[in-house]
Amino acid sequence: MEVLIGVRGPGYVLLASNLNQVRGITIMKPDDDKSRVLNKHNLMLYSGEPGDTVQFAEYVTANVALYSRRNEELELHTEAVSSFVRRELADSLRSRHPYQVNLLIGGYDITDDTAKLYWIDYLGTKAEVPYAAQGYASYYLLSMFDRHMTPETPMEEALALLKKGYEELERRMPLSLGGFVTKCVDKDGVRVVDVTRGIQLVA
Amino acid sequence: MARRYDSRVTTFSPEGRLYQVEYAMQAISQAGTVLGIQGTDGVVLVSEKKVLSKLLEQDTSTEKIYVLNDDILCGVAGITSDANILINYAREAAQKSLLTYNVNIPVEQLVRRMCDLKQGYTQYGGLRPFGVSFVYAGYDKIHGFQLYQSNPSGNYGGWKATSVGANNQSAQSLLKQDYNDDMTLEACCSLALKVLSKTMDGSTLSSEKVELATVGKNKEGNVYHHIWTPEEIDALLKKEGLFKKDDAQT
Predict the structure, then answer these.
(1) Which of A71, A80, A87 sits opposite B103 (nearest CB)?
(2) What residues of B are in contact with residue A77 (Cβ under 8 Å)?
(3) A125, pLDDT greater than 90
(4) Which of A131, B45, B232, B238 is most buried (most C-beta within 10 Å)?
């Protein structure tokens, strides 16, 4: 029950993932970071088949870094990163063992100075969206974002909205998610803006 | 004489030279000149055609200037059939990059890809190098309008103004004298034709002998490439007072 969430506003993208890493009936790790920083202005969150996820994420990270090394430190911008990732997943689909990885890619696109959020699934479906979630979280959160998120919502408001969302997920999902780590991507790069652990709900 | 070290293209001579590469450059110095000039708002390519005949279908065939993708043109000096192979390769490389990144390939990356291919033919395979030099004119968001030149060795450089082919040294020194950093595309076109007229042999200077192409930005700010029609070229030549037609030609 991995949860990935993203919201995009003027000049920023907030990306969040839950902290628990579960195998069977055991919580393996209470501080799992389901993300990779691809370059200064791009962050990718991943979920799906264990093993495939990290393999694919690191493969993408390495290729994005290689591009910069080869091309005088030119930073691949968000649109190009998402197209590259989508193409890799689409090619993987018709191979012997497709990667079963679902992603959210958030970035500050330096070629046109806008924030962008991409939802990409293991089939190679890509959509640029104002907000999104991977996993069951979408059933709970999309309606909330429909109601409260606008293209002008400032980052602090969006973060408060996300926190309400975390509360809702802990209240209504049958498996404990262990809290969330929220990161912000804007013109200054990627940084952690919030870590919410063990949300206590008074019955 | 260096005959002994000629046959194997992938071998150095005792003086540390690659003769086949040098011979390729010799072939190119006999070919028609190609000039390129980069301005503040565009790049121009101008070339001297060697194949002349009234029977040539002027409007539909270009001898020396080719489109690589929406934002990049190139001018060719040397063996045209060799050039065709490289141009096809460049077009495929540009589209492959577009397929992966959904963005037009940056000009320098395309140049580098072609040059890496050319370099391969100087190091392994036992095949002769391509007998072509290119002048590339293009645009990308990273560096704006750019001009590059490459040769059979696989080396390339970025230029403000350059030329390849016959008389390229005199063209280069004329360009050095008259070029300045603030030229508009229009001024570049005029300068290119002026320089070409001084380095070309023969008494004719018209669209029969000249090809011209530009990469620029239109009023809406969108990048375009344009291979000029014979009528447009003649109009500019007449405007610059450079138009010359030798009626005794067949």
Answers:
(1) A80
(2) 103
(3) yes
(4) B45
